[in-house]
Known about the structure:
Strand order of the largest sheet: 1-18-17-13-12-9-8
Largest sheet: 7 strands, antiparallel
Radius of gyration: 22 Å
Helix content: 25-40%
Bound molecules: glycine
Distance between the termini: 10 Å
Amino acid sequence: xxxxxAKSNIVKQLxxxxxxxxxxxxxxxxxxxxQSSGTIGNHALVSSAHPLxxxxxxxxxxxxxxxxxxxxATHFALAVVYPQAGNIGGGGFAVIRMNYGTIxxxxxxxxxxxxxxxxxxxxAKGQLNDMQSTHGxxxxxxxxxxxxxxxxxxxxxxxxxxxxxxxxxxxxxxGYALTPLAAExxxxxxxxxxxxxxxxxxxHSDQDWQAGDTITQPDLALTLEHIQTNGRNGFYEGIVADQxxxxxxxxxxxxxxxxxxxxxxVWRKPITGNYRGHQIISMAPPSSGGVALIQLLQGxxxxxxxxxxxxxTKTIHLMAELExxxxxxxxxxxGDPDFINLPVDQLLDPRYNExxxxxxxxxxxxxxxxxxxxxxxxxxxxxxxHLSIADADGNAVAITTTxxxxxxxxxxxxxxxxxxxxxxxxxxxxxxSPNQFGLIGGExxxxxxxxxxxxxxTPTIVTYKDQLKMIVGTPGGSTIITSVYQTxxxxxxxxxxxxxxxxxxxxxxxxxxxxxxxxxDALTENVQTDLAQLGHQLRMTDKIGRMDCILVLPDGxxxxxxxxxxxxxxxxx
Length: 573
Ligand code: GLY
């Protein structure tokens, strides 16, 4: 359907036509009823946050690329058309399962610059200045995304990297049309863009952006060309590195040439566990996602939640009680494994979790003030986006990638055309003080030079009887873990298809604040009353997560689950 290497005039015109079709498609999606069953791929499927990015990933697979090639191309495309989270100025995690059964995961999380220190966001009185960890240049960690894409390609890619980046260069040069949601979001960010930038970025406008307006990004196209020509050094050294450092030096940024040059992503052993006969493969620290997800599933397995029902009082109560305990453990024990010993084996030990959850009462909620981290026995030896891709050979990849907040620190690197992350806010800047997601952290996640900040990103692959079954993930800060958890339960326990499992409303508890966040219409009035009587505080919220998922159906076809909460789009062939 989509042509990505537009060389002739005819093809260029076709390309513009395609952009218009994509916008109309996304308008339609949001103006009509929500699909209850997902896009079907007979061979391969991509689900990502933007229709154009999904189209590029699909085209790569149609042209002989595998799931990893498609993921790399989709990731670069999201940096162009989904700047609020798609990125080259941020970082993330990839979980991979190749069709021969090999599993692996890549940590391309940002790192603290060498000049970072644990009290960098505290004033002389020890008070936290949380604007500095979320807005402007001090908020950025050293980006990992470009190094990550090259590391993935080196190990698993099959098509030339230049071919995977080319469609994004073309889109940055020619422009892409805003969807209604994208225009609406941009209009809310104009003041911050003005405050934090020293130039008029392509996203500035004196008038309101409208759906269908075209954004061209010549500077970003040049940056992508540098990467295409010079590999990872095209970002971490040379002109792009100079532009990043110049941006840092224009105010109070800390990232240096040495920080950029020395950045390296890390292959890590995935976190694995079992749930009702399924194998769960997820991300290891410095993401808390895999550990927390397995703890939650271990706590759920002993209960017949399918009989209790989806979003029934008893099911929600159990989930909230498990979540407050798991997030207390997260806050206390998890951080960067390259800096501290993490009790991962203990946290994943079923005996630990049986004990950990043994004080859950079904008669009343446990106030979070009475919940602290579990007793770990001594060790014997600690605004994001997601894409899911399955190829025709059964290879699978789940990537969650982020700038942290929507548009990161709001600063677009002058001349280079991409937004920088504000990932430093994911560190615990002051013990006991919540970050922007309300998450509390401790010593394990204190700031230190070169350290990676704790994440909640939970790219996850599920197998059943050694066959690929699901690829799951979402943005949403602290709600990522519980969104992935609920989506797995929706399919495995509640018998939903992939799209339905993504569509249904979600809830979330994270220890502090001591409340269950509830999407509107998630719970009936009776369930809300019953939960309140048990002692739960409920807080209604707008949208939780924007999932992109794939389910392998019994006949081997693939069902996409693209979240109607965003512009998420699943495309297959
Ligand atoms: N920046 C959100 C996360 O990594 O959890």
